[in-house]
């Protein structure tokens, strides 16, 4: 038997993920049919809801902003061979930083609030990821298990803080006080009425900057090179004189800091207060986004848009097809994770054979040169 | 604290421990064979829904249990195909299974039963009720031992007894049978098992079959034994606590029981302690107790109290050399 040739690069980075996505969507379509609805109608409504008009598109971009942050968080860790399942918890605790800056600086100017909120959220989100990183690096605990545990610890901590500490006296709801002045970040709709009431805000530019910064970090800096080396071969990186344990801690901190940006977007950009469970699953979607996007910023931007569209379109779908709730999006997300992540090996051998066959036929069709 | 209170807290502990224990043992089979399983939660949730749906439609608890088990095994087999046959990433597969269950149970629940994601309350015969052990009533008047027998040991449903019976059974299978020996070996050194002419793939599939079975029972417990009908996200993260207990027990069956009992006890106490002033410490925030299993697991994993080292081959797909 001949040795399998690897796929051409374009097929590996674009065709295979697209085929896997298609597979996930086909099965999602089957689920839609199972609950007695027309999947093509559903797809049409989702597409229109997500891209068809200004406000819908604004929401799509807003959701995509969150997914860029969590997708990058998962991807940065993945480059160093670490699986950060804790983006959800890291974004959650980062909310403390965002709201404290927002409340204390409420009387100043948003130009002051934004950078400070970014720093505070990044610091707290990064710290929440640094602990699992430290435990992995110095004590050998598996970062996957620790980050899962830290999601739950974060959740308990935040419930405690919101019900006992941050809640204003005399208020029933477990939320913090609201920011009303400079703490509320500028909305894009104030400049472009095109976006209707969509909560798209200045944070989207932070997301774009984060995409570029991560690209530069991973592929054009010493640190990024060291991270990728660690991810490919931890033994090699330690022989190359890189301190693996330091690198793990730095990587996890960056990862958590990126996840923390969700807090800036949600807390100061949309809700204007700290609410219970405000990351509502964005951290977990980041896993799917990073997998779909092959841990590359361009891929992450595209898959963040895809999931943003699914989230917004899914909301729209709920109005026109009440049978299909937001949970359909969770199903699609699960199938995308399954096929592009865990079952990647399903289509690859077939695709490789197809390419080899195609390649062989091309060779046969070409006129035989000298020496062949 | 009088005897009645203690007995009722301990009885609640047993009821809350049951699903943890079943899921924990489920995870034990999988992880001992070298397959990480963070999808315990998803399998339980799917089983809870399937069992309640079937029991609601047929009015038969056994049919419910059977379908719950089948669905859980089905999901376990997805995990098996992804992580054994396709050599995919076991963590990612587990994450996918958890989301799949979370999404599908709510979605199908809404469209099939139109009760906001709940399944209809189960009628007589659709649900496993408490079993009165012999002489529970007669012995009730015996001081101390009577109430303990009647209130703590008797009166639970079948699943509770099954879960605790599964502990010695698992210990026996793991340490006294040929299958158990091979299972432990395949999690530590699959190559050695392969060299001995035993199929690594088959062993791991068998292990995941048992994992599916036990998760199915655990899930059914939620909806057709402890509760009456399925509610949204009914398992509430118990699958992750079971995973924590498994690590806490260092992947051994009898310690797994004690870890689950500890976490079950914390759960029972937390319900009791809401709004109660304790001497010296004052009111303990409920959240602190809720977070305790996770904190304890992190501390243990970090080697600050003992050291938890999992099966060596865990998480690594086995590729046979040619």
TrEMBL record, chain A:
Transmembrane segments: 12-36, 56-77, 89-105, 111-131, 143-162, 194-218, 247-268, 328-347
Compartment list: Cell membrane
This protein's GO CC annotations: plasma membrane
InterPro entries, sorted: ABC_transp_permease (IPR001851)
Topology of the protein relative to the lipid bilayer: Multi-pass membrane protein
Predominant localisation class: membrane
GO molecular function: transmembrane transporter activity
Keywords: Cell membrane, Membrane, Transmembrane, Transmembrane helix
Domain of life: Bacteria
Pfam families per UniProt: BPD_transp_2
Protein name as it appears in the record: ABC transporter permease
Taxon lineage: Bacteria, Pseudomonadati, Pseudomonadota, Alphaproteobacteria, Hyphomicrobiales
Automatic annotation (TrEMBL), chain B:
Domain of life: Bacteria
GO molecular function: transmembrane transporter activity
Keyword rRNA processing: no
Pfam family, one: BPD_transp_2
Keywords, alphabetical: Cell membrane, Membrane, Transmembrane, Transmembrane helix
Topology within the bilayer: Multi-pass membrane protein
The protein's name: ABC transporter permease
Organism: Devosia nanyangense
Origin organism lineage: Bacteria, Pseudomonadati, Pseudomonadota, Alphaproteobacteria, Hyphomicrobiales
């Amino acid at each position: 038997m001949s040795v399998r040739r690897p796929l051409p690069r374009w097929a590996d980075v674009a065709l295979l993920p697209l085929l896997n996505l298609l597979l996930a969507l086909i099965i999602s379509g089957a689920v839609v049919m199972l609950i007695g609805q027309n999947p093509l109608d559903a797809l049409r409504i989702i597409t229109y809801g997500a891209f068809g008009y200004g406000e819908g598109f604004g929401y799509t971009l807003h959701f995509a902003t969150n997914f860029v942050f969590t997708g990058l968080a998962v991807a940065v860790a993945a480059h160093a061979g670490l699986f950060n399942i804790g983006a959800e918890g890291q974004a959650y605790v980062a909310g403390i930083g965002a709201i404290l800056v927002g409340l204390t600086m409420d009387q100043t100017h948003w130009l002051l609030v934004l950078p400070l909120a970014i720093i505070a959220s990044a610091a707290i989100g990064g710290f929440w990821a640094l602990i699992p990183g430290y435990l992995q690096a110095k004590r050998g605990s598996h970062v996957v298990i620790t980050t899962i545990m830290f999601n739950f610890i974060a959740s308990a901590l935040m419930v405690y803080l919101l019900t006992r500490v941050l809640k204003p006296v005399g208020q029933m709801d477990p939320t913090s006080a609201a920011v009303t002045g400079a703490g509320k970040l500028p909305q894009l709709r104030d400049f472009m009425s095109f976006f209707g009431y969509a909560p798209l805000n200045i944070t989207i530019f932070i997301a774009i900057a984060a995409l570029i910064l991560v690209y530069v970090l991973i592929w054009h800096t010493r640190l990024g090179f060291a991270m990728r080396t660690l991810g490919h071969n931890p033994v090699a990186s330690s022989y190359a004189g890189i301190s693996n344990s330091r690198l793990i801690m730095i990587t996890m901190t960056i990862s958590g800091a990126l996840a923390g940006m969700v807090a800036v977007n949600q807390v100061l950009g949309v809700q204007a207060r700290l609410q219970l469970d405000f990351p509502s699953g964005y951290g977990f979607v980041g896993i799917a986004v990073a997998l779909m996007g092959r841990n590359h910023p361009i891929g992450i931007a595209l898959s963040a848009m895809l999931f943003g569209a699914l989230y917004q379109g899914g909301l729209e779908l709920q109005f026109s097809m009440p049978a299909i709730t937001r949970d359909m999006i969770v199903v699609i997300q699960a199938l995308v994770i399954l096929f592009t992540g865990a079952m990647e090996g399903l289509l690859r051998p077939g695709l490789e054979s197809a390419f080899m066959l195609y390649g062989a036929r091309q060779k046969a069709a070409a006129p035989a040169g000298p020496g062949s | 604290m009088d005897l009645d209170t203690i007995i009722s807290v301990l009885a609640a502990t047993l009821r809350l421990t049951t699903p943890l224990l079943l899921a924990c043992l489920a995870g034990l089979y999988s992880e001992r064979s070298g397959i990480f399983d963070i999808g315990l939660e998803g399998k339980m949730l799917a089983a809870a829904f399937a069992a309640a749906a079937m029991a609601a439609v047929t009015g038969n608890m056994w049919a419910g249990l059977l379908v719950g088990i089948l669905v859980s095994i089905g999901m376990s087999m997805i995990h098996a195909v992804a992580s054994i046959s396709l050599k995919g990433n076991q963590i990612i597969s587990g994450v996918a299974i958890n989301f799949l269950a979370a999404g599908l149970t709510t979605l199908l629940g809404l469209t099939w039963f139109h009760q906001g994601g709940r399944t209809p309350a189960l009628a007589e015969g659709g649900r496993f009720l408490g079993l009165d052990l012999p002489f529970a009533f007669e012995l009730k008047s015996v001081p101390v031992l009577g109430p303990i027998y009647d209130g703590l040991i008797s009166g639970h449903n079948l699943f509770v007894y099954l879960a605790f019976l599964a502990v010695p059974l698992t210990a026996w299978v793991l340490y006294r049978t040929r299958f158990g020996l091979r299972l432990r070996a395949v999690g530590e050194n699959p190559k050695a098992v392969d060299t001995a002419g035993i199929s690594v793939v088959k062993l791991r599939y068998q292990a995941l079959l048992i994992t599916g079975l036990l998760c199915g029972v655990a899930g059914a417990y939620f909806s057709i034994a402890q509760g009456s009908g399925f509610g949204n996200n009914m398992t509430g993260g118990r699958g992750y606590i079971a995973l924590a207990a498994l690590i806490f027990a260092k992947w051994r069956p009898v310690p797994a029981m004690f870890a689950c009992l500890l976490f079950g006890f914390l759960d029972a106490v937390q319900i009791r302690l809401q709004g109660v002033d304790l001497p010296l410490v004052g009111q303990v925030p409920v959240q602190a107790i809720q977070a305790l299993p996770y904190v304890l697991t992190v501390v243990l994993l970090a080697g600050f109290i003992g050291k938890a080292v999992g099966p060596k081959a865990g998480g690594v797909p086995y590729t046979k050399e040619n």
